[in-house]
Amino acid sequence: MRDRGKWRWLACLAVLAAGCDGQDADRLARIGRMAVDKLQAQTGTDPGPGPDSLQSIRGGLGEFALDAKVSARLRWDKQLEGATIQVGAVGGGAVKLSGTVPGIEARQRAVQLANSTSGVTKVIDELTEAGGR
Questions:
Q1: What is the pTM of this model?
Q2: 86 sits in which H/E element
Q3: Cα separation of 19 and 37, whole Å?
Q4: Of 2, 34, 55, 120, which is most buried, counting CB atoms within 10 Å of its CB?
Q5: Can you give the three-state secondary structure of 28-49, one letter per residue?
Q6: Hey, where are the domains in the chain?
Q7: What is the pLDDT averaged over residues 63-91?
């Protein structure tokens, strides 16, 4: 049971891979494999083909909720530092962005990231800019 907990952090890699292009996903997969190899070498454990294995996580990428994918991308973007953005799935691939961003550039970046996330068909922009619109 303790070994399973060691592999849960790999789910974070899967979230980061959501919405990335093929090259980004391949790079993240390579990084994940290297991390697993190092962890296995240090701990002497092998997760095997069980539910917590890397293949299991990789195969379930599409199962993450659309709003979670968009939220993860927005949360990790340096240009959106200081923004408080809530993401809600509206249905049919649409997401609604609400909250406050520092300025117009951050607003545009948030909408662009949401639009470019795999599975998003429409972005409803209800963001407000700090000290303004």
A1: 0.54
A2: strand 84-91
A3: 25
A4: 120
A5: HHHHHHHHHHHHHHHHCCCCCC
A6: 2-63, 66-129
A7: 88
User: Is pLDDT larger for residue 125 or for residue 32?
Assistant: 125
| pLDDT of amino acid 32 | 74
Residues 84, 100: Cα–Cα separation, whole Å: 5
Percent over 90 (pLDDT), the chain: 36
The side-by-side arrangement of strands in the sheet containing 122-129 is 84-91, 94-101, 122-129
Secondary structure class of 98 (helix, strand, coil): strand
Q: What is the rounded CA–CA span in Å between residue 14 and residue 11? A: 5
Amino acid at site 97: L
Confidence at residue 65, expressed as pLDDT on a 0 to 100 scale: 84
Per the document, the length of the chain is 133
| DSSP class of 121 | -
Report how far residue 42's alpha carbon sits from residue 15's, in angstroms, rounded to the nearest whole number. Answer: 25
Q: Between these two residues, 132 and 83, which has the higher pLDDT value?
A: 83
Does position 58 have pLDDT exceeding 50, yes or no? no
Written as six digits, the tokens of 112 are: 């662009």
* Token pair recorded at residue 82: 């200081």
Q: CATH second-level architecture of 66-129?
A: 2-Layer Sandwich (3.30)
Asked if 86 and 70 count as a contact pair (C-beta separation under 8 A), the reply is: no
